[in-house]
């Protein structure tokens, strides 16, 4: 009875992860037979034997055994996406409109993806509209990068986020000028000619700038002079009149528009066409109204921005959108900070692969590493709109991604730390047909051994003694005769798995020496990028760049590039 239970869970574990592991199987067995916990040591021996047996099965044998246990007959579980809570006051709006408004000063990362995915999901939930808006009105400090616009679009489409309308704020400058003039005419905005330090002192004391209460017509003249180039950067700003007694000085007469020297800091899209630029809060407030945005989903760090923007809506008689603030996202094991990534790429470009470096939590970096879009969506949707800060561990990402990648990833033989094995007494050529997946129809490949020489992992065989029987996965069994640092001498022992099982033979992956491929595996270890040089079966070169694979007994990876018989793989996780 125990043997059968252990066998069933060992098969299930290998089907799910590519190689059965003793820990999870023991837990399953003891969970089903709780009365035997006192015999855990004896049960562990039984489980270990079954693990060894199951890991030595061919893909065909594994599938047959899985069918016998009914493991392949179970209906696939639908991906569980946490149900999102309803948005507030949806009944008060004719059409729900959400937006994602990135600054294209760098590609988006996992934290940005939360706003994008949730905003898109809600727009679709309510059969509304989703807007992509590039907020690129700071060519001096948060300078847009020309390539970022396209990268952001590509990342969003990869995540399954498709927008209904797209806007670029730098192409809408006249609209901001029109609203600014209207606010000036109504007496709600003014041109401030004070030096920055002088205004800061007045603001902190709750006192008005000497220009604040000039007639609106005078401010309109000053505004036109700014547009005509009569003021330089730092000599004049346009401020919104708020409340000089507000307890938070940051809300007192904040800057709506400022002059930027575009000869020194030309905008990458429109060059030096405009000198007067809206600040984030002014441009965002105007656009949310003009674009009909009904619900804004953003991080709680934007709470102050909401208070600033409400002044504009009050003055112009607009209705402010519903705002839902969610918590920050932290990530363990990967670099999430955009400013940190930018500084490192600037200071040490030779140490990193670019914005899509697999050590970074940019969407491009996660994709290059082999994380699937379904994984990111699942994690983001599980966080939902919670106002609590969340920390996502790499272990959690890997677990979700493993579940999603397992059904679609082809299994291939990759041998690291290869050592040559010379087998005598084997009839050649030897041809084996191996399925790419134990339970899915992902095709098959044929591996032909034309010479009695193959590569195996050195760490799998270094402690073997003469007379040890080893099974070469899906091929045949060999008996070790002699081992040194250069070559292993072995003799053909037998063909079947049953013989290997009787001998308690370990089962290892292999690849023919002839026609094997050189593979470079890159592994992210926090800030370190470790390179490992391996060999692999020839079929790997027939796969596509960008394909996620499972390297048998090594883990998941993504083919980064294939060139001249050499393959570079980004290691994803176990």
TrEMBL record:
A motif ('HIGH' region) lies at residues 102-112. Pfam families: tRNA-synt_1c, tRNA-synt_1c_C. Catalyzes the attachment of glutamate to tRNA(Glu) in a two-step reaction: glutamate is first activated by ATP to form Glu-AMP and then transferred to the acceptor end of tRNA(Glu). It is found in: Cytoplasm. SUPFAM superfamilies: Nucleotidylyl transferase, Ribosomal protein L25-like. Residues 96-404 form the Glutamyl/glutaminyl-tRNA synthetase class Ib catalytic domain. The gene is gltX. Its main location: cytoplasm. GO terms for cellular component: cytosol. Residues 409-489 form the Glutamyl/glutaminyl-tRNA synthetase class Ib anti-codon binding domain. Keywords: Aminoacyl-tRNA synthetase, ATP-binding, Cytoplasm, Ligase, Nucleotide-binding, Protein biosynthesis. It catalyses: tRNA(Glu) + L-glutamate + ATP = L-glutamyl-tRNA(Glu) + AMP + diphosphate. It comes from Ignisphaera aggregans. One of its GO terms (biological process) is glutamyl-tRNA aminoacylation. Its EC number is 6.1.1.17. GO terms for molecular function: ATP binding; glutamate-tRNA ligase activity. PANTHER family: GLUTAMATE--TRNA LIGASE, GLUTAMINE-TRNA LIGASE. This is Glutamate--tRNA ligase. Belongs to the class-I aminoacyl-tRNA synthetase family. Glutamate--tRNA ligase type 2 subfamily.
